[in-house]
Amino acid sequence: MSQFAINLIFVGASFALYFGIAIWARAGSTKEFYVAGGGVHPVANGMATAADWMSAASFISMAGLLSAGYVNSSFLMGWTGGYVLLAMLLAPYLRKFGKFTVPDFIGDRFYSKGARLVAVICLIVASITYVIGQMAGAGVAFARFLEVSNTAGIWIAAGVVFFYAVFGGMKGITYTQVAQYVVLIVAYTIPAVFISFQLTGNPLPMFGMFGEYTADGAANAVPLLEKLDLVVRDLGFRDYTADVDNKLNMVLFTLSLMIGTAGLPHVIIRFFTVPKVADARWSAGWALIFIALLYLTAPAVASMARLNLIKTVYPNGTEQQSLAYAERPSWIQTWEETGLITFEDKNNDGRIQMYNDKNEDFTATAQARGWNGSELNVNNDILVLANPEIAQLPSWVIGLIAAGGIAAALSTAAGLLLAISSAVSHDLIKTMINPNITEKGELTAARVSMAVAILVATWLGLNPPGFAAQTVALAFGIAGASIFPALMMGIFSKRVNNKGAVAGMVAGLAATLLYIFTFLGWFFIPGTNMLANTPDNWILGISPLSFGAIGAMINFAVAFIVSNATEEPPVEIQELVESVRYPKGAGAAVDH
Amino acid sequence: MADNNSKAAQYWSTNLRLILGSLVVWAFVSYGCGILFRPLLSGISVGGADLGFWFAQQGAILSFIGIIFFYAWRMNKLDKEMGLEE
After folding, report:
1. Record's family (chain A) (predicted)?
2. Chain B residues in contact with A80 (beta carbon < 8 A)
3. Please, how many CA atoms are within 13 Å of residue B20, restricted to the half-sphere of its CB?
């Protein structure tokens, strides 16, 4: 059977499953549409949250980022540490508050339409920027594995999301996401298990990574990470485990990712979906366990894939002649066709050289060996998708990876689109424009706004603005600098009032946007940046991607100063704060 | 009512103490062991790397899971002790 047929079977079977679930779990009421009737078990909810959270970025791109070495550990700690904040600082109280959306809480707690509007805008911008990447990611995965054009891939992705998100609502999404989690985690771990076993003899990747490298025979066994440090050093790269100099930036970047994670609305609304406050706490823990299964495997995939790639190019060791281009394995040829691997024979020796040609200390060595620049360019995003081919695993594993990558992108897209549609139909239309709208009307508005959001996301996915990496910084910056501090102050302070909250959100957001745009260009238009985006120009060495944490601090400071200079919040608001702090009398999510 | 109020205040201050303690551990394993104190821990080797590297890549995540489950267990117990559960 051809690889194409196998991919088709795996992807087709997974879709049949998602559609079946969407039909079985059709939403009947607005409440079911938004929060699945508040009746999802914490373990199932944890699994759905994990699928919601782990996007194309986690599944496809993260291992590639991690393969740069220790310096990118921030992604691992940042994207998991946020769940600790969620579990202790936000989830249980927002569940007790018992309404559907994040702007609901901000609008009610700060008794202000302005605050609600700022929250809605932040939510929509953060979610849309995030969803573009998912559509593009799903498009690439479809295009590669179903052998269609990229455009067709994105339209297929849009159609699938439309079907189960628009008809199923939260209930359909929740159970579909449970299935998607299972597909994506199996797809991620199986190749990793094979590779770990090949390289270290240990089938568990997370232990194999810190185990002995035994692929050259037991007599030559060395710890895998030492071996990796050795071969990358031979090629002029920084040691894989090398420490970083700019610790301040690493701390702030990690912190930005953590508070950004805790402030992303599509993650927060997950916790409205469990039956009780106690379950909201458990649910965050279960979510992190399911996320950790992938996040503990990812660094192993990263280190082993990097080692495998170098071994492929230098089959007899880094001191010896490299691989002849004519003898390259078939997976390099396949990926060359997509343009994600490129080769240019700079010194015309018919062999592939791959080394760090930006390292000036290494130039002499390279010249002595007759090298004239690094010749192989490998896009980091293919690391996970090409992993089974690099390790020569059977073709059904490749079919599985295809289904997994698509599941990761679609589950996150669906969660984001639901957050967007509830913000538009519930917070904008029902609460601010037309309070008399019927339940049926609201449900229709939710479905229409979701369909519009899908079209906008598809259009942006087809015409990507060319700044995918920057927009992620924007999404995290907005969520971390505006939504997270506002929610936290709303729960932990009775003194912060409407004026303080609005001033804080606006100040935090403005400072973050200003810093990002200064280095990355106004609205990311190339050439409009006021300073070159280099570490020398960064204030105190803080990169634009790390600034969300500073934005949050500005938000907190401004909110406290303004609130203390103005009047106390009304008594009923102070009682509201009091009531969200105690689980008693929570009941189901309230209709209103 | 006065009794209820003092009980509620006690519940909330216990919660805040618990959160603070958990956040100290949270920061210690990630920002501490994983980043800032890594040079100090370089003497302790873990499978071809050092302890700080292990914390940054795996240890912090495992600790986070421990922190959340400890907090959830402790708070759900406190809810019952105080009669404030649902």
Report:
1. Belongs to the sodium:solute symporter (SSF) (TC 2.A.21) family.
2. 60-61, 64
3. 7
**Which residue, of A480, A505, A533, is where some domain finishes?**
A480
Least confident range of A22-36, A78-92, A183-197, A568-582: A22-36
Domain boundary among A339, A370, A388: A388
Alpha carbon distances (Å) from A517 to A510, A539, A543: 10, 14, 12
Which pLDDT value is given to residue A587?
Answer: 54
Residues A459-511 have pLDDT tens digits of 877 776 554 556 666 788 889 999 999 999 999 999 999 999 999 999 999 99
Please check whether residues A171 and A309 belong to one and the same domain: no
Cross-chain residue pair B19–A88, CB shorter than 8 Å: yes
B6 touches chain A (CB under 8 A): no
Q: Could A281 and B84 be called an inter-chain contact, meaning their C-beta atoms sit closer than 8 Å?
A: no
CATH of the domain at A27: 1.20.1730.10
What pLDDT digit, counting tens, does each position of A549-559 carry? Answer: 999 999 999 99
Q: Are A427 and A337 contained in the same domain?
A: no
Kindly state whether residue A124 falls inside one of the protein's structural domains: yes
CA A503/CA A498 separation, integer angstroms: 8
Instruction: Judge whether A234 and A324 are in contact, CB under 8 Å.
Output: no
Whether A103 is in a domain gets the answer yes
- Where exactly are the structural domains of chain B? 17-81
CB A430 within 8 A of CB A70: no
Is B34 within 8 Å of A295 when comparing Cβ atoms?
A: no
Measured between alpha carbons, how far is residue A208 from residues A199, A205, A335, A392 in Å? 8, 5, 28, 19
Q: Same domain for A287 and A343?
A: no
Mark whether A151 and A276 lie in a shared domain.
yes
Q: What is the pLDDT of residues A286-336, one digit of tens each?
A: 999 999 999 999 999 999 999 999 999 998 888 888 999 999 998 888 888
Three-state DSSP state, A160: helix
* A330-365 pLDDT per residue, tens: 888 888 887 778 999 998 899 999 999 888 899 999
The nearest CA of chain B is from the CA of A297 a distance in Å of 9
> Could you say which residues from 20 to 49 on chain B have a Cβ atom under 8 Å away from some Cβ of chain A?
22-23, 26, 30-31, 34-36, 38-39, 46-49
Which positions in chain B touch A223 (Cβ < 8 Å)? 47-49
Do A127 and A195 belong together in one domain?
yes
B23 vs B28: CA distance, rounded Å: 8
Residue of chain B whose Cα is closest to the Cα of A239? B49
CB contact under 8 A, B72 and A87: yes
Shortest Cα–Cα distance, B84 to chain A (Å): 5
CA distance A358 to A301: 26
pLDDT at A590: 44
Query: A374 φ, ψ to 5°?
Result: -70, 135
Question: CA–CA separation, A387 vs A196, rounded Å?
Answer: 12
Between CA A401 and CA A410, with CA A407 as vertex, the angle to 5 degrees is: 140
Regarding whether A128 and A277 lie in a shared domain, the answer is yes
Give domain status of residue A452, yes or no: yes
Tell me which residue of A34, A51, A170 sits closest to A412, measured CA to CA: A51
Interface test with B, best of A84, A227, A244 (most B CBs within 10 A): A84
Whose tokens are 């957050």? That residue is A419
Q: Do A81 and A173 reside in the same domain of the chain?
A: yes
Full domain range(s) for residue A335:
225-239+303-388
Total number of domains in chain A? 2
ipTM, interface predicted TM-score of the complex: 0.95
Contact A581 B12 (CB under 8 A): yes
Q: Tokens 């980043």 map to which residue?
A: B35
Q: Which of the 8 DSSP states describes residue A467? A: -
Quote the pLDDT of residue A503: 95
